[in-house]
Automatic annotation (TrEMBL), chain A:
Taxonomic superkingdom: Bacteria
Upper taxonomic lineage: Bacteria, Pseudomonadati, Pseudomonadota, Gammaproteobacteria, Pseudomonadales
Name of the protein described by the UniProt record: Sarcosine oxidase subunit delta
Stored InterPro entries: SoxD (IPR006279), SoxD_sf (IPR038561)
Pfam families hit by this protein: SoxD (PF04267)
TrEMBL record, chain B:
Keyword flag Oxidoreductase: yes
Domain of life: Bacteria
Residues covered by the GCVT N-terminal domain: 621-889
Pfam families the UniProt entry points to: FAD_oxidored, Fer2_4, GCV_T, GCV_T_C, SO_alpha_A3
Name of this chain's protein: Sarcosine oxidase subunit alpha
Keywords, in A-Z order: Aminotransferase, Oxidoreductase, Transferase
TrEMBL record, chain C:
Record field: transmembrane: none
Pfam families given in the database record: SoxG
InterPro entries recorded: SoxG (IPR007375), SoxG_het (IPR006280), TrmE/GcvT-like (IPR027266)
Organism: Pseudomonas cuatrocienegasensis
Protein name: Sarcosine oxidase subunit gamma
Length: 108, 1005, 209
């Protein structure tokens, strides 16, 4: 069972308090009417399935009811960071910052 | 016959407390403090079972979790049956009833035995794959006998009388294993002030210290154990868990511990006590002090009862005062195994000889044995055991361990016990559960834990540290390190003095050579539980199975309840040699939880029976119960399904309830509908974006039906939303969709449109809702309210506030039945009183309570959909013929608009919702029935849709249904057919989905 | 103020039935074991208001304090004075619990104090109840029920946590050394009541009226 740092509650909680909501950073097109069917299909249905760093949207369903993002390694299940909606990840597939302490959301 | 193998003195058992038990129907006696295995050995029971494939007699081999043979069925009654209990881990209790798991009909005269003698040829590895696959249907015949003969234990057929529970634990340091390393680690961590949990699978803490001949500070080692345990027990920051197996090491330092609270007391837990408990532990750091398992040597007939592990025999002699034989032969490749020789001599028994594979062993224990007159044959090994139901002799030959050849004819020595030691395999299981690959260390001939993401230290034997003084130091250091990593300050401590002694390394030996090639030699067993032989592994590699995982699956090596604890390293060493590669190149199979089997009861915990799942009730539940409601599960809610009168079945009750609503008035508990309070200046705009229809012009005091789609344009919820004030709305959702819709609104607000000023709050549980529906509903409501119910003052699709039954209420004039209806909402704390007042006032108006089934029929008569029944995530509003509910000119591209305008969403032959009227008015189409246009076509028929809702209508006097049909809206008047499983076909006409009051006059009066 | 519909929902006269009314707790009171490890009391029919607003806006915090006399609590905190308590539920959400029947007046007072701000106040009194657990074994009962760490070092008095509980969700509030409160949704109350009876059986459960 994963241990996930809620950036709003400011502490680690058990996975059962959360719901996973899929890949993060997929904004709704501002003008859906301008999208071709193919573009709209990409937005709706196509998601990354990386081996490694993945940015995910979670919601702290049993806690503060807030959505937030997590950067998780899909092989090790290590969570490198969690961050609020609107913030940018510090870890990306291209690289990232030095690993942080647990109070910054790191669990393994 | 009493305890023929019990030594006159010694052991930690309580000889003043005899304990009576039965095994395979025979009564025996042991002592308190025995394991079942110790007691069986004490009574001279050689055979505890028959082997899985060859049905060979098997005896006890080990003294711990690695025991492959003594896997027994426990329980005196049907309800108390437990399969696959390792006798080596089961404490003896008065009245224990054990039977062999396999062996049919008896372990001593097994009718499979003859077959077993020739079974080697009949059942090579892959036998199941090769033989039983073809012809397939014969497997059913074979299976019955194979399963019966193989005996995998059986589960009880009666309800378990015991209860089980969970305990969630958190700690700074979890120490796994309470042997020397674990005790030292726990002491170090606990003294630093850390929250410590110490768990050990055995009856007592101490591990090897409870049976070792080595001293600590010159005293018996168990005295130090007593001191440490007493100190730990006195600390508030320490939790001690005996009889607790740490079974799984999961992600993010989450571990599961299976504690057996009462299994040592009896087969059923005392009243008021849980029998077993699952601790779910989140640990900041873990110290794995899981020790090592001795590895047997693989030699011919090494499965005959009387072949045991060296270390296990020491344990039986010193800890239980049991000598499982009289004349011992040891075959070893290392120094440590000599301890059993010294223990055996101390017990006054005869050591026939030691065969040491090394050419010139000079370690201190070796010399001590030599000095006590033990005959030591160097450069030698036991190549073959003699005997069938019990060892009668050992053939010892000189061997060349490099060429792996027998180099002398050897001699056969009479003996009744052969113990072997091929070195020690660290128990790396927990360290490897998350995928960390163990690392081979050639210097100690063993795999040790590799790197893992786990926040853990390994200490003692699991780390490849075997010398007692080093083990204690390693444990203490790991405890300090874990505490520091968990944020505490280190402590210093002194450890007891251990004996200094010269030790020499082991020599690599796994399979002992035989003068015949492996395939022709008598069977050399690698995995006793699964009857895997060295020859079988060689055969597998010859047949092309090169990966260790493939060899495992082809031969069954490492399957079963022991998961290869005893045999895996030998097996992969043999496979590696056979393939001409090194052991690390071969690698280990994946280690997965659980370490040892866990009962289903412990996995379920208290989540069974009445507590299996939450049951949600409305404020009127007690009334429903008193009035005989039958209930339907809707999500976790219990909703009244129908209210049968005496003698009525579902159909009769529903017909009566339906007519009552159509002709008089009915009352429904609609409290389960999801309700969301929406406040904020942008509430209206938000509604415009999440509903398909327009909300800009909805006036205060009015209500409107809305559809919600997902971005793909498919309907996912619906409901009525009322405008309570300019910036204030009350949304209702489907019962099952309440939580989903709430998360849906929040995800869009929090991630897409945070600039919209709006707040959502669930009020589902706050408001109780009762629906009055039927032509008499106005008259009835008028008796209990001060609200002006005049049709112009309070028109359809509007709401009013006022008193109902003396309680402040909001009343919504909306209808899901097509009749004049009022939905009365009051604070749930006062709802039961209001409900009862309406019921009382309703007597003279023919008021009838109705349930969800009647609601379903009535709404279907009107063609009203139920999301999730008439929709399935692939249905657009236009497919439902609800285009009137789509705001095609709304400025913002609301959720679903773009999706439903994809090319596929506009096809004219999409499946569309229509009414279906069976030609035979008494035939009710089964819901889910597939529809075809031509019933005479060949199978597979082309299916064109299916029935979504179907009922008998009391009001209409005939059966009717709704369903989706390809291009159905343009096929009104045509016929469809539902071919059923029994071969019959129901014919129906495609009609409008509105069957009753198509103009909607009845709800608008 | 007609932008929001503020409605007095609790009747003055009618008898209310709390979510555990059917359990007949008053009949069970005093019949439990003498030295119960766990005592349970339903603090029933109180006024519960959900308050939403912008915590970063100093005007919001001060207006809330002015209206309630309670300082707006930070994350995972519950503050109380007399028979009122204010608890953080999320970054823009609080639970205000007030004596039964005062919730309408309190809502009006809050709305007056927060008149110019984007806020929300919702009466949820009928939708939830407060169960108080006290006694030396409450912690064990909680450990059986939730994966949240209830050790005092992690869960001191004054902390309040929304979490998973058995197979449900609720809020746990630590109100005194051996005293805890559960905020339970009405429809789940019977399940939680069954669960608590079961989990506390081995320690002895007493009911307080």
């Amino acid at each position: 069972m994963l241990h996930i740092f809620c950036p709003h509650c400011g502490e680690l909680r058990s996975e059962e308090e959360f719901h996973a909501k899929g890949q993060a950073h997929i904004p709704r097109p501002l003008d859906p009417a301008a999208c071709s069917d193919a573009e709209w299909g990409d937005y709706l249905f196509f998601r990354d399935n990386p081996r490694g760093i993945h940015h995910e949207l979670w919601v702290h369903a049993a806690g503060c009811r807030q959505y937030f993002n997590a950067t998780r390694h899909t092989v090790t299940y290590e969570i490198l960071e969690t961050y609020k909606i609107g913030e940018k990840p510090r870890f990306t597939a291209a690289g990232g910052a030095e690993p942080q302490a647990v109070d910054q959301g790191v669990t393994a | 016959m009493s305890q023929v193998n019990r030594l006159a003195t010694g052991g930690r058992v309580d000889r003043s407390q005899p304990v009576t038990f039965t095994f395979n129907g025979q009564t025996y006696q042991g002592f308190a403090g025995d394991t079942l295995a110790a007691a069986l050995l004490a009574n001279g029971v050689d055979i505890v079972g028959r082997s899985f494939k060859y049905s060979r007699p098997r005896g006890i081999v080990a003294a711990g979790a690695e025991e492959p043979n003594a896997v027994l069925q426990i329980g005196s009654t049907e309800a108390a049956q437990i399969p696959n209990v390792r006798a080596t881990q089961q404490a003896l209790y008065p009245g224990l009833v054990a039977t062999s798991t396999n062996g049919w009909p008896s372990v001593n005269t097994d009718m499979m035995g003859i077959l077993g003698k020739v079974g080697g040829k009949m059942m090579p590895p892959g036998f199941y794959y090769k033989t039983f696959m073809y012809p397939q249907n014969l497997w059913l015949t074979y299976e019955k006998y194979i399963r019966k003969a193989a005996g995998l234990g059986r589960s009880p057929t009666e309800v378990d009388p015991d209860s089980y529970d969970y305990m969630n634990q958190h700690c700074d340091v979890l120490v796994v294993g309470a042997g020397p390393a674990g005790l030292a680690a726990a002491l170090a961590a606990a003294r630093s002030g850390a929250r410590v949990i110490l768990a050990d699978e055995q009856e007592e803490f101490g591990g090897s210290l409870l049976s070792t001949r080595e001293t600590l500070d010159g005293q018996v080692a168990s005295e130090w154990v007593d001191e440490v345990v007493a100190e730990l027990a006195g600390m508030a920051n320490v939790t001690l868990l005996p009889r607790s197996t740490v079974n799984g090491y999961h992600d993010h330092n989450f571990l599961t511990i299976h504690q057996r609270l009462t299994d040592h007391l009896g087969e059923v837990a005392p009243m008021g006590m849980a029998r077993q408990r699952m601790h779910r532990v989140r640990a900041k750091r873990v110290v794995l002090a899981t020790g090592a398992h001795e590895r047997p040597l693989v030699y011919a007939n090494n499965d005959v009862p009387g072949n045991m592990l060296a270390d296990a025999v020491s344990t039986y002699v010193r800890r239980y005062g049991v000598a499982p034989g009289k004349q011992l032969v040891l075959s070893t490749n290392n120094d440590y195994a000599y301890r059993v020789v010294l223990d055996w001599l101390d017990a006054g028994l005869q050591v026939v000889a030691v065969a040491d594979a090394r050419s010139n062993p000079r370690g201190a224990w070796v010399e001590e044995a030599r000095a006590r007159g033990v005959r030591i044959l160097t450069g030698s090994a036991v190549v073959e055991a003699r005997g069938s139901k019990r060892v009668t002799g050992a053939r010892i030959c000189a061997i060349d361990v490099t060429a792996l050849k027998v180099t002398s004819p050897g001699e056969v020595l009479d003996c009744d016990l052969i113990v072997s030691s091929g070195g020690y395999s660290p128990v790396v299981h927990l360290a490897s559960h998350l995928g960390g690959k163990p690392t081979w260390r050639e210097d100690i001939l063993a795999f040790v834990p590799g790197d893992g993401l786990q926040k853990r230290e390994c200490a003692g034997a699991v780390n490849g540290v075997f010398r007692l003084g080093d083990v204690l130091a390693d444990g203490f250091e790991a405890g300090v390190k874990a505490a520091v990593e968990a944020g505490l300050s280190p402590v210093e401590g002194s450890l007891p003095a251990t004996e200094a002694r010269h030790e020499e390394p082991a020599i690599a030996l796994f399979q002992v050579p035989h003068d015949k090639p492996t395939a022709r030699a008598p069977k050399q067993f690698v995995d006793l539980q699964n009857d895997v032989t060295a020859a079988g592994i060689e055969l597998a590699t010859r047949e092309g199975f090169e990966s260790v995982e493939h060899v495992k699956r082809y031969t069954a090596l490492g399957f079963g309840t022991d998961q290869g604890k005893l045999g895996n390293i030998n097996g992969l060493a043999i496979a590696a040699r056979s393939l001409g590669i090194s052991i690390p190149q071969m690698g280990t199979t994946m280690f997965r939880p659980n370490y040892t089997p866990v009962t289903f009861g412990a996995i379920a915990g208290r989540h069974c029976g009445a507590l299996f799942e939450p049951k949600r009730y409305t404020a009127m539940q007690s009334w429903h119960l008193q009035n005989g409601a039958e209930f339907e599960d809707v999500g976790q809610w219990k909703r009244p399904w129908y209210f049968p009168k005496a003698g009525e079945d579902l159909h009769a009750a529903v017909a009566r309830e339906c007519l009552a609503v159509r002709n008089a008035v009915g009352i429904l508990d609609a409290s389960t509908l999801g309700k969301i309070d929406i406040q904020g200046p942008d509430a209206r705009e938000f509604l415009n974006r999440v509903y398909t229809n327009a909300w800009t012009k909805l006036d205060v005091g009015k209500a409107r039906y809305g559809l919600m789609c997902k971005e793909d344009g498919m309907v996912f919820d619906d409901g009525v939303t009322a405008c309570l004030a300019d910036n204030h709305f009350l949304m209702t959702t489907t019962t099952g969709g309440a939580a989903r819709v709430m998360e849906w609104l929040e995800i869009y607000h929090q991630t897409e449109w945070p600039e919209l000023k709006v707040y959502f709050t669930s009020v589902t549980d706050h408001w109780a809702t009762m629906t009055l529906s039927g032509p008499n509903s106005r008259k009835l409501l008028a008796e209990v309210t001060d609200i002006d119910l005049d049709k112009d003052a309070f028109p359809f699709m509007s709401w009013k506030e006022g008193q109902v039954g003396g309680v402040p209420a909001r009343v919504f004039r909306i209808s899901f039945t097509g009749e004049l209806s009022y939905e009365v909402n009051v604070q749930a704390d006062y709802a039961l009183g209001v409900w009862e007042k309406i019921i009382a006032a309703g007597q003279k108006h023919g008021l009838t309570p109705y349930g969800t089934e009647t609601m379903h029929v009535l709404r279907a008569e009107k063609g009203f959909i139920i999301v999730g029944q008439d929709t399935d995530g692939s249905v657009t509003p236009d497919d439902l013929n609800m285009g009137w509910c789509v705001g095609r000119t709304k400025p913002f591209s609301w959720i679903g608009w773009r999706g439903m305008n994809r090319e596929d969403g506009l096809r004219e032959d999409r499946k569309q919702l229509v009414g279906l009227k069976p030609i035979d008015p008494n035939q009710v189409l089964p819901e889910g029935a597939q529809l075809v246009f031509d019933p005479k076509q060949a199978i597979p028929m082309q299916m064109v849709g299916h029935v979504t809702s179907s009922y008998m209508s009391a009001a209409l006097g005939y059966s009717f249904a709704m369903g989706v049909v390809k291009g159905g809206l343009k096929r009104i008047g045509e016929r469809v057919f539902a071919p059923l499983v029994d071969g019959s076909v129901i014919e129906a006409e495609i009609v409008s989905s509105v069957f009753y009051d198509p103009k909607g006059e009845r709800q608008n009066v | 103020m007609n932008a929001i519909n503020v409605y007095k929902q609790r009747p003055d006269a009618a008898q209310g039935e709390s979510p555990l009314y059917h359990a007949g707790l008053h009949e069970l009171a005093g019949k439990g074991p003498k030295h119960a490890g766990v005592s349970l009391r339903e603090k029933k029919l109180l006024g519960h208001l959900t308050l939403r607003g912008d915590a970063d806006d100093a005007a919001f915090a001060s207006a809330v304090e002015q209206a309630t006399g309670l300082a707006l609590p930070a994350a995972l905190a519950v503050v109380s004075a007399g028979d009122q308590s204010l608890q953080w539920l999320g970054p823009d959400e609080w639970l205000l619990i007030v004596p039964s029947g005062t919730e309408f007046a309190v809502e009006q007072k809050l709305r007056a104090a927060l008149a110019d701000q984007h806020i929300s106040v919702v009466n949820v009194s009928g939708g939830q109840t407060l169960l108080e657990l006290s006694g030396p074994n409450v912690r064990q009962v909680l450990m059986k029920s939730t994966s949240y760490d209830v050790h005092p070092s992690s869960f001191p008095v004054g902390k309040a946590v929304g979490t998973h509980f058995a197979k449900s969700q609720l809020v746990i509030r630590h109100t005194g050394e051996d005293t805890w409160e559960l905020v339970v949704r009405r429809s789940f109350a019977d399940y939680i009541w069954l669960w608590l009876q079961d989990a506390s059986a081995e320690y002895g459960l007493a009911i307080e009226a």
